[in-house]
């Protein structure tokens, strides 16, 4: 079965029950360990656990494999990608996007992120600077407040960063942006708990991926307007 073409109705009970083979989990943990050694040497911390982190704000680092396979599935040429991480936390996906050369700087591409929490915003900026990733387009604000800035991006990475009421505002503003400035664009929604809210605004799932993550598989939906 071609998993990129199916259009499932997502259950409310997450995560999915199908388990990932042990060998896949072992290799994923091994390579993550190697990467973390490099980060520690540079003084970079993308993990959720950190002194001073506000307990009321929950942020989870996107699994590397999930992000890479999702970006590989994009049908937008890399020289045309303008990437925004909505709820960027400590900046891990922005680092991955830069390392994968997802955005072509020589073509005028933009790499941006928005994070509401000041602590994580500061940590994101610090991490990215240590890794030589541009930080010119980072925003410390509520994603629901972004309006005109959305017009300059066409790939929006969303790893279930906020509840339904904020997702409703963001989806509405993104819809208005796509209608105001016609372009091929995707909301790449990982672990889509608020998928019904997104679809209220006319977004359709063009593609669905099921990517191994720890014990289970993670759903990633590519939403766009018809």
């Amino acid at each position: 079965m071609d998993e990129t073409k199916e259009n499932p109705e997502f259950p409310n009970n997450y995560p999915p029950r199908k388990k990932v083979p042990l060998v896949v989990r072992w290799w994923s943990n091994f390579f993550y360990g190697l990467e973390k050694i490099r980060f520690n040497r540079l003084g970079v911390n993308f993990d959720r656990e950190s002194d001073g982190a506000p307990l009321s704000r929950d942020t989870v680092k996107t699994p590397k494999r999930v992000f890479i396979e999702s970006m590989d599935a994009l049908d937008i040429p890399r020289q045309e990608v303008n990437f925004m991480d909505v709820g960027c936390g400590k900046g891990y996906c922005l680092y991955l996007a830069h390392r994968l050369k997802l955005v072509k700087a020589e073509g005028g591409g933009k790499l941006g992120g928005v994070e509401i929490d000041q602590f994580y915003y500061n940590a994101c900026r610090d991490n990215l600077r240590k890794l030589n990733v541009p930080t010119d387009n980072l925003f410390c604000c509520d994603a629901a407040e972004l309006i005109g800035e959305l017009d300059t991006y066409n790939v929006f990475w969303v790893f279930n960063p906020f509840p339904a009421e904020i997702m409703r505002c963001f989806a509405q503003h993104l819809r208005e942006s796509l209608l105001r400035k016609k372009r091929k664009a995707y909301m790449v929604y990982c672990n889509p708990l608020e998928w019904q809210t997104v679809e209220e605004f006319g977004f359709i799932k063009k593609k669905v991926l099921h990517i191994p993550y720890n014990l289970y598989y993670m759903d990633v939906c590519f939403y766009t307007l018809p």
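Residues 1-9, 11-17, 23-27, 50-57 have pLDDT under 50 and may be disordered. The chain has one domain: 22-224.
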